[in-house]
Amino acid sequence: MSEGLRVISFPASARAAARPVLAASIAVFREDGRVLLATRTAPPAADLWSLPGGKVEAGETLEEAALRELGEEVAVEARLIGFNRHVEIIHRDGEGRVSHHFVVASFVGAWTGGEPRPGPEAGAVMWADPFDLGGVPTTRQLGDVLRAAHAIWVKAR
Question: How many domains, in total, are found in the chain?
Answer without folding.
Answer: 1
